[in-house]
């Protein structure tokens, strides 16, 4: 039986950050944020919500496929301790009951109306109630797929690269939405993230001859152990799109599109770098995942660009043993933006934070001269399993000479091995980066903190373009 419970949560203080550039897609008098999410993998427990900024209330609606009770709660950690929990149900005689109690969300379902331990019918999931639910009307748009079908290597961490070609367009198109494609439970369980890179070759190399055979065969290879005849070395500099665990669609504002191809008869080849997470070293598993790009020939006002602000992913990023609230920062310096941004600056409209299992909080700070402006973005409840491309309700203008700093807070105080955690590609190692969508597109792709020498003990610049 399916039944629905309506819950109202009074929010003591709902605030938002004042910024400079207004999102043309959000009405200024709009006070409602809404969305919905299945909380369990079987899609038996559906949570819907409306946030009213005017009333300072959040309205929840839970629909569950069960003949017993429904449990719902707001938890600071994902557990029951310290959580606000609401329980409701319908007795066999048709009368309703509920608990008196009125952000990781936790949930539970009982097989009967007896309030006993819920067994395996429970879980937790992070949700940002202030994000608009991602919805895209594909009518009137075309699409193409860049999807790889690969056997996951039987090792803890693999970065697997495949080559793809977009359709041969006779004129520039604008991609208006990227849809992640993860086919089946294996893809969802083992795909940590993937990144789409544009492949660019020198004028004296024929791209069709170089990449074509690998596109036709579907052959893939370890990204950083490639033999000379697997040419992804031409495909590592220009990131186009990224998806991380828990993420959804990336939908561009109505005045922005990503150009494909950016040069006719060139740059038609792309590489997908997929991070497979396989801590049990399982073998023989075939993973099918990738990207569906929705596009139009009706060009929009601006070309979109992607910028990664980060700290170098290497042992230079070191978290001491048993650390709690340990902060690492990566800086895109004022010198970089002064040299690389256009005269009128750029407009940031969407962000994604990315770190690994030790990440707890993330923040993107914004400086102009000697002043710190409002934070571009902040997530004080960062969850490795909930990494969303976040549309900004109010856009942020980044001017020449501004500095952007990504700040990552880590906690390894509960690790039992008393070891350091260093920067690296594995989910058991760490990263610290913010991925920004902006317009107009520039040639600046990565801007962050890195060392100048292979020797960790050498001096390095912590404010350098990369």
From TrEMBL:
One of its GO terms (biological process) is octopamine biosynthetic process. Residues 1-19 form the signal peptide. This is DBH-like monooxygenase protein 1. It holds the Pfam family Cu2_monoox_C. It comes from the Eukaryota. GO terms for molecular function: copper ion binding; dopamine beta-monooxygenase activity. Residues 43-170 form the DOMON domain. GO terms for cellular component: extracellular space; secretory granule membrane. It comes from Orchesella cincta (Springtail). Belongs to the copper type II ascorbate-dependent monooxygenase family. Keywords: Disulfide bond, Glycoprotein, Monooxygenase, Oxidoreductase, Signal.
């Amino acid at each position: 039986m399916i039944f629905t419970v309506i819950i109202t949560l009074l929010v003591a203080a709902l605030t938002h950050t004042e910024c400079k550039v207004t999102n043309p897609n959000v009405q200024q008098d709009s006070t409602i944020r809404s969305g919905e999410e299945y909380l369990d993998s079987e899609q038996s427990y559906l949570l819907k919500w409306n946030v009213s900024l005017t009333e300072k209330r959040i309205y929840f609606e839970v629909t569950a496929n069960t003949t017993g009770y429904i449990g719902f709660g707001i938890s600071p950690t994902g557990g029951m301790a310290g959580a606000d929990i609401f329980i409701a149900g319908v007795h066999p005689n048709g009368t309703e009951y509920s608990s008196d109690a009125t952000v990781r969300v936790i949930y539970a379902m009982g097989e009967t109306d007896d309030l006993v331990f819920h067994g395996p019918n429970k879980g937790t999931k992070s949700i940002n109630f202030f994000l608009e639910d991602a919805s895209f009307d594909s009518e009137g748009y075309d699409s193409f797929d860049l999807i790889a079908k690969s056997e996951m290597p039987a090792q803890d961490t693999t970065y697997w690269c495949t080559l793809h070609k977009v359709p041969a367009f006779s004129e520039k198109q604008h991609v208006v939405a990227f849809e992640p494609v993860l086919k089946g439970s294996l893809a969802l369980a083992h795909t940590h993230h993937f990144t789409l890179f544009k492949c660019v070759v020198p004028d004296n190399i024929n791209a069709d001859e170089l990449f074509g055979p690998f596109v036709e065969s579907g052959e893939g290879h370890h990204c950083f152990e490639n033999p000379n005849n697997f040419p992804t070395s031409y495909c590592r500099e220009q990131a186009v799109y990224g998806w991380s665990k828990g993420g959804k669609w990336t939908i561009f504002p109505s005045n922005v599109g990503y150009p494909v191809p950016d040069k006719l008869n060139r740059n038609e080849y792309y590489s997908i770098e997929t991070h497979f997470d396989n801590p049990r070293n399982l073998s023989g598993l075939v993973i099918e995942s990738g990207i569906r790009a929705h596009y139009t020939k009706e060009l929009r006002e601006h070309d979109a660009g992607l910028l990664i602000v980060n700290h170098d992913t290497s042992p230079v990023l070191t978290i001491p043993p048993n650390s709690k609230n340990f902060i690492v920062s990566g800086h895109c310096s004022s010198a970089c933006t002064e040299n690389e941004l256009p005269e009128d600056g750029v407009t940031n409209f969407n962000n994604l934070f990315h770190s690994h299992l030790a990440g707890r909080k993330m923040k993107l700070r914004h400086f102009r001269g000697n002043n710190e402006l409002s934070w571009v973005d902040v997530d004080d409840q960062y969850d490795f399993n909930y990494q969303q491309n976040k549309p900004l309700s109010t856009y942020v203008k980044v001017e020449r000479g501004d500095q952007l700093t990504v700040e990552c807070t880590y906690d390894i105080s509960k690790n039992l091995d008393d070891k350091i955690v260093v920067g690296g590609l594995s989910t058991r190692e760490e990263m610290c980066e913010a991925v920004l969508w902006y317009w107009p597109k520039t040639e600046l792709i990565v801007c962050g903190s890195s060392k100048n020498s292979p020797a960790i003990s050498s001096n390095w610049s912590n404010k350098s373009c990369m």
